[in-house]
Amino acid sequence: MALKGNLKDFGITQLLNLINLARKTGTLYLEGPEGTAFLCFKEGKLVYATSGSEDVNLPTVLQRAGKLTAEQARVVQANMAGRSDRDMAMMLIQAGHIQQQDVVQSVRQYVLGLVYRIFSWNEGTFRFEPAQLPIQGKMVTSIALENVIMEGSRRLKEWERLQDELPSLDVSLKFAEKPTTPLRDINLTVEEWRVISFVNPRNTIQQIAQYNSMTEFQIRKIVYGLLQAGIVEIIKPARPAATEAPGRSQRVEDQVRVSTKARRPDVKRGLIHRLIDRIREL
Amino acid sequence: MQTLKIVVTGPFASGKTEFIQSVSEIDVVSTDRRISSQAERIKDATTVAMDFGRITIDEELILYLFGTPGQRRFNFMWEILSEGMLGFVVLVDSTRPETFREAQRILETFRNYSPVPYIVAANKQDLGDAWPADDLKIVLKVESGIKVVPCVAQNRESVKQVLLELLYSILEVMDQQEE
């Protein structure tokens, strides 16, 4: 029986927790704001994951992990088109291009990266199909979910913090007129440089992310870092009127509810047995 | 004449009225009204005060079943209804995961009202997209030792089984207290 629902009501953390505790085997199909993905589990362990929007095979995974060059990945894909990931892995290992450990680590890294991205999906739908494992020919891994849930939750908190700091991506950036940190002391990563190169009052952060094919999480993290370093400043649009914080009415409701304990009726076992006998007769 | 009370609670449209109707020997005294809120137009009418069913045990003993109102604006009734209850049933619509969080909140609220035994009934198990009771136990974070029983609120035998399981739980608690 498939488990179906909405990510808004039943989040990724809860789903993984259920799969872990129930030691489930099957595939979790997700449709979220960034597209589709499916995650495969065997007896409560994450064995495979892929995003529906990208056809990721082993050479791509190895290239992203820095184990193959773009040219090597292209050649392998061209020569081994239609072959399974396992076959490609065997060939690459036997040819001495990579070691078995590289494959294991790269696949693990790819699967985890995808799952952590999915943690930020707070809307969309899910469907868990028990016993369904579309992983034939794929390189699988086996990852205990406890740590994934903890790390995902930590990243989610980071994500929430980033969202608090940078609520909208429809704002622009400009270089700070008086940087708080001497520029010569700043080391920027390649990704940060890519963002810096688009800093212009005419480009919104959203547009910068699109130009660089970055996810919301990636761009928020980078912009947050640049803001903290005092390199850039936000050009803020007019702020909308403050609205009431969500959940307020519920908090008030909870406070109003008096916590007087109801008394348990003083009943004897005989009464309960009489109830049981009567209900059986109904 | 002695009366005992079991409370049937759960999120909006979880099947509380049907549950009580299935076993009550009187027509359930229900104060259903047409639903006005757009968000709650899942069913035509909902319980605005409470459902009230009765099972006569014998000449000296009557069991009342009270259903709590499903809509949040009537939550002030919950504590009143929980006063003096023998135990309570948390009814969950197994086909609507969007209500699970609310079910968990209700469960915790009732647990705080009174330390009486309780049981979770996973309703609508006759439907194809129902989540299994074992999974509900996990997602609702139900304590170990608390039963989560599959249920079909429209089916009298199924409702009887839920009530019996609650009564067995009450006996188990009594046994533990006597030890």
Describe this structure in words.
The complex is a heterodimer of chains A (282) and B (179). Chain A is of the alpha+beta class. Chain A has two domains: 3-159, no CATH class; 172-235, Arc Repressor Mutant, subunit A (Orthogonal Bundle), CATH 1.10.10. Chain A has helices at 12-21, 58-64, 70-79, 85-94, 100-118, 145-165, 190-196, 205-211, 216-228, 248-256, 269-281, and strands at 3-6, 26-32, 35-42, 45-51, 125-130, 143-144, 172-175, 232-235. A six-stranded antiparallel beta sheet of chain A has the order 1-5-2-3-4-6. A two-stranded antiparallel sheet of chain A has the order 7-8. The longest helix of chain A has 21 residues, at 145-165. Chain A starts with a strand and ends with a helix. With 179 residues, chain B is an alpha/beta fold. Chain B has a single domain (2-178), classed as Rossmann fold, CATH 3.40.50.300. Helix content of chain B is 33%, strand content 25%. Chain B contains five helices and eight strands, in the order βαββββαβαβαβα. In chain B, the strands form two sheets. In chain B, strands 4-5-1-6-7-8 form a six-stranded mixed beta sheet, sandwiched between helices. A two-stranded antiparallel ribbon of chain B has the order 2-3. The longest helix of chain B is centred in the last third of the chain and has 23 residues, at 156-178. Chain B is globular and about 45 Å long. Classes of the chains: A alpha+beta (282), B alpha/beta (179).
Name the descriptors:
heterodimer; A: 282 residues; alpha+beta; Arc Repressor Mutant, subunit A; six-stranded antiparallel β-sheet; 11 helices; 45% helix; B: alpha/beta; Rossmann fold; two-stranded antiparallel sheet; globular
Integer count of domains of chain A: 2
Order of helices and strands of chain B: EHEEEEHEHEHEH
Q: Describe the biggest sheet of chain B?
A: 6 strands, mixed
Envelope shape of chain A: flat
Q: Overall mean pLDDT score of chain B?
A: 85
Q: What fraction strand of chain B?
A: 25-35%
Total of domains of chain B:
1
Q: How does the major sheet of chain A shape up?
A: 6 strands, antiparallel
Major beta sheet, strand line-up of chain A: 1-5-2-3-4-6
What's the arrangement of strands in the largest beta sheet of chain B?
A: 4-5-1-6-7-8
Query: Roughly what is the average pLDDT of chain A, rounded to an integer?
Result: 80
Query: Which residue ranges of chain A are poorly predicted, with pLDDT under 50 across at least 5 consecutive positions?
Result: 237-263
Which geometry of chain B do the CA atoms define?
A: globular
Largest interface: A-B, 37 and 49 residues
What oligomeric state do the depicted chains represent?
heterodimer
Please give the CATH class of chain B: Alpha Beta
Distance between the termini of chain B: 30 Å
The tally of beta strands of chain B, per DSSP, is: 8
> How far do the termini of chain A sit from each other?
32 Å
